[in-house]
Design goal:
alpha/beta, Aspartate Aminotransferase, domain 1, Aspartate Aminotransferase, domain 2, 2 domains, seven-stranded mixed sheet, 13 helices, 43% helix, globular, binds pyridoxal-5'-phosphate, aminotransferase, transaminase activity
Length: 382
Amino acid sequence: MPSERATQTTPFAAMDVLERASERDGVVHMEVGEPDFRPPAAATEAAVAALRAGDDDYASSRGIQSLRDAISDYYDDTYGVDVPAERIIVTPGSSPALLLAMLATVDPGEDVVLTDPHYACYPNFVRQADGNVVTAPLDPEDGFEPNVEAFADVVDDDTAAMLLNSPANPTGAVTSGDKLEALVELGADTDTTILSDEVYHGLAFDAEEHSVLEYTDDAFVLDGVSKRYGMTGWRLGWAVCPPEYVDAVNRMTQNVFICAAPFVQAGAEAAIREGTDWLADVREEYRERRDLLVDAAERWGFDVGYTPEGAYYLLLDVSDLPGDAFDVADVFLEDAGVAMTPGPDFGSGAEDYLRASFATSTEDVREAIERIDALLAEATTT
Ligand SMILES: Cc1ncc(COP(=O)(O)O)c(C=O)c1O
């Protein structure tokens, strides 16, 4: 009999949609956040060279020193903050880093505050630590930026952690420095640890990105190469830990994951050190797709009244169409061959929406727009 924890772990609807969509030919996939770009060439070359050189034994559980130095330099170069390599633990993806941070922070029965909407998997991470999910609503009129008062309303002595995410999935919202600083203050006043998921950093179009590390050392940052460098299948991430948590997180890493693959770490280091120009080009292409979709959403009347400032997602308000978000997603898939994720997967605050991912090619984004144009034109004439 599976445990209560296992039974309560919900599926990830985007993957369910992907499974269904993959059974059909010619579908434009906008349901998953899977970048269509090949990684920076330097990353592939470095990983292949490391593999050929026999770099395939267990590595240090904390991560290879030269990669941790590259990550430390990245924080200095990008945000002007000093993050000693000793505080960085390399993991097989940012998801394991988040799991470790959650397990290191939350005791059974304690609350963890998430925004609503949030990344669909977050509640399941809280469940693995036997914590309780508490939500702070986001408002489209604020561009889905976190509302500090909404956090203050739900944070109390039972709160172990607040989980922040900027640029955010599923909204694309970027949290301003002032708001981050206010949330850090709230965390300090209430002894609540901040877990900051910064996996979409590097993918902000208009807004300035801030790391929580600019305002405190007393927070976890979870990050990785999946989204920024199009390296989702490499499984490489890291946790920057508050000083007093480093050894605890390392002990859990030693036992549970042992280490991230060393040749993958060599590739990640090359991406971080040499991928800046690659990233600048990719970001411009995402911006172009974002603009195409935002224009189309306005034309369709699905406009949510905000423009995503980062990541590669847009929420479409489909509340004026017949049926709920699941029905609309079905119609888009069945009648237009366009796969999108129903909003409820991301919390009750996204009930009226579909999430469109523009991590797919620009050509595909144009094709999806044409197909939905045709679908809606047909619906109004019949
Ligand atoms: C907000 C957010 N955090 C973390 C992840 C997982 O990233 P990784 O591939 O580094 O585990 C995702 C993947 O979609 C995400 O959207």
